[in-house]
Amino acid sequence: MKQLFLILFFTTSLVVESFSQSGYVSLKECNNDTLKYMEVNFITH
Q1: How confident is the model at residue 4 (pLDDT cuts 50, 70, 90)?
Q2: How far is CA 18 from CA 7, 28, 32, 33, in A?
Q3: pLDDT (tens digit, 9 = 90+) per residue, 14-42?
Q4: Please, what sign has the CA dihedral across residues 28, 32, 27, 39?
Q5: pLDDT score at 10
Q6: Contacts of 4 (CB under 8 A, 6+ apart)
Q7: For position 20, what pLDDT does the model report?
Q8: Can you give the chain as a three-state secondary structure string?
Q9: CB 36 within 8 A of CB 30
Q10: Half-sphere exposure in the Cβ direction for 2 (13 Å, CA)
């Protein structure tokens, strides 16, 4: 059980780290276009 928890913890931390390292585009940079903002920050990863 402890090993399963550790595997889940490391997997989660790697996923979070990969998202945090990728570039973030603000809503202002997308000219307040919410659909473009969602596509750039969440869909294209």
Answers
A1: confident
A2: 17, 23, 25, 25
A3: 666 666 656 778 889 889 888 988 888 78
A4: negative
A5: 77
A6: none
A7: 60
A8: CHHHHHHHHHHHHHHHHHHHHCCCCCCCCCCCCHHHHHHHHHHCC
A9: yes
A10: 0
**What does the radius of gyration of the chain's CA atoms come to, in whole angstroms?**
15
Q: Which residue type is seen at 36?
A: K
Enter the tokens of residue 42: 């969440």
φ/ψ bin of 26: left (φ > 0), alpha (ψ from -120 to 50), beta (otherwise): beta
Query: For residue 33, is it left (φ>0), alpha (ψ between -120 and 50) or beta?
Result: beta
